[in-house]
Amino acid sequence: MISSSVKFLLNDKLIVIKNPDPNQTLLNYIRTELKKTGTKEGCSEGGCGACTIVLGELVDNKIVYKAINSCISFVPSLNGKQLIIVEDLVSENGKLHPVQDAMVKFHGSQCGFCTPGFVMSLFSMFKNNKSLNNELITDSISGNLCRCTGYRPIIDAAKSLNKINKNDQFSKNKNKVIQQLKKIKPKNVYIKKDDKIYFSPKNIKDLKGIIKKHSNFSFLAGGTDLSLKVTKERKEIPFIIDLKEINELDFIKVSKNYLEVGSATPLIKFEKEIKKYYPDFYLVLKRYGSVQIRNVGTIGGNIATASPIGDSLPVLLSLNAEVLIESFNKRKVISLNHFFLDYRKTKLKNNEFIHSIKIPLFKKNIFKAFKISKRFDDDISSVCGSFNFEINNNKIKEVYIAYGGMAAVPKRAKACEKILKNKPLTINTFDQAKKYLEKDLSPIGDMRASKEYRLEIAKNLLMKCFVEINSNKLSRVN
């Protein structure tokens, strides 16, 4: 069945929007259509967190509360979900929610502009977790910026929630909401409004049916980058195909030698699995963006966007990942090393989509990855470096090195790799090899870093990798 309406719960009330504007942001809808102005607009690019709202989604018969940036999410993304905004946290008798109460008691608000976003991020954390430690708290609010408080009162407020009974009004209404969400389970959605089209298929068969008939569309696989065309460039996206409701593209499969990830798998889901195999990949992903971004951003979207500073891309390059690509009648596998052609250009054709990514599991190799950015959390890389070494008897048998932020595309450092291969694992070997990075990489200077700084950092990261490898060896000996 195909629907032209978006159905969702506003707290616990059913809302139906017939033929909404596919380019209208959730933030704009909340403030102008719902007339709820607690949710604020700050950056319009998912960087400050003032616009944070929470979506309740049904997963394995349970409600998962996901904090997202409403400024870069479109209205159709509400379909089949529960929308919770800051005004909904106050109970019917006017009592503040425990999260709001904690912010008041610990003086977590000064000017107040960022406060609703912090409250919603903390609310999502509060609802999804039984205990709240420092790492979880700081990660949960890493996408929320505050110019006033210095964050300490906010963190103190969050810590105090460990002592609070979690049976709030949302717990009391939980069973009712679950039943309502089951009734409005998403179907294929096809919307046409003012010459703009939005299609959200439920399966790959229906996806292939529409890409066979059309060509001038944009895939939406999270939208943390695509939506900026609307919010920052002030353009319209005439035809959107949303991949997020296709369960066949949201999976993680682990075999003996590979980890295969569906292209629509959220980064926050992927990071939990990849941590078991490549801890440094996990650490880079934790700084990829905020929880709000990783809740909706996908690994397939990050690859297809082909940004030279996409944080997962140099890591995947150094791991020799492969991309499984499909069209309506074909399937092929391309090494990621041959996927990127030029700035924001790939081998992906108009009628093709990324099905999944295959990541080899180098169980005996030493893998390192580092991100350098001006701000530690929720910032774009100046340089990202990734290193994959096979070492036997203190000799480098195989090596894969990749950098982001150093060229028009994420790039392997093949001259550097060549000079390292079959060489002893010594400081002299690496000191010689780092000079070859000048042959591999020709960075530009921009607002994030000068070209000289980038090249020096790239060399330093290679040396940092050597130091850490040797430190690990020494620690094992001792």
Summarize the structure.
The chain is of the alpha+beta class. It contains 18 helices and 21 strands.
The gyration radius over C-alpha positions equals 23 Å
Q: Can you count the beta strands?
A: 21
| Arrangement of strands in the largest sheet | 1-7-8-10-9
Give the CA-CA distance, first to last residue.
65 Å
Largest sheet: 5 strands, mixed
- In DSSP terms (H or I, runs of 4 or more residues), the helix count works out at 18
Protein topology:
Blueprint: E1 2-3, E2 5-10, E3 13-18, H1 26-33, E4 52-59, E5 62-69, E6 82-84, H2 98-105, H3 115-128, H4 134-140, H5 152-160, H6 169-172, H7 174-183, E7 188-193, E8 196-200, H8 204-213, E9 218-220, H9 228-231, E10 239-242, E11 252-254, E12 258-262, H10 267-274, H11 279-286, H12 291-296, H13 299-305, H14 312-318, E13 322-326, E14 331-335, E15 340-342, E16 345-346, E17 353-360, E18 366-372, E19 383-392, E20 395-404, E21 411-412, H15 414-420, H16 427-434, H17 437-440, H18 451-477
Parallel strand pairs: 1-7, 2-6, 8-10, 9-10
Antiparallel strand pairs: 2-3, 4-5, 4-6, 7-8, 11-12, 12-17, 13-14, 13-17, 15-16, 18-19, 19-20, 20-21
Describe the protein's architecture and organization.
It contains 18 helices and 21 strands. The protein is an alpha+beta fold and 478 residues long. 46% of the residues are buried. Helix content is 33%, strand content 23%. The protein has helices spanning 26-33, 98-105, 115-128, 134-140, 152-160, 169-172, 174-183, 204-213, 228-231, 267-274, 279-286, 291-296, 299-305, 312-318, 414-420, 427-434, 437-440, 451-477, and strands at 2-3, 5-10, 13-18, 52-59, 62-69, 82-84, 188-193, 196-200, 218-220, 239-242, 252-254, 258-262, 322-326, 331-335, 340-342, 345-346, 353-360, 366-372, 383-392, 395-404, 411-412. Helix 2 (98-105) packs across helix 5 (152-160) and helix 10 (267-274) runs antiparallel to helix 11. It has a 5-stranded mixed β-sheet, with no helix packed on it.
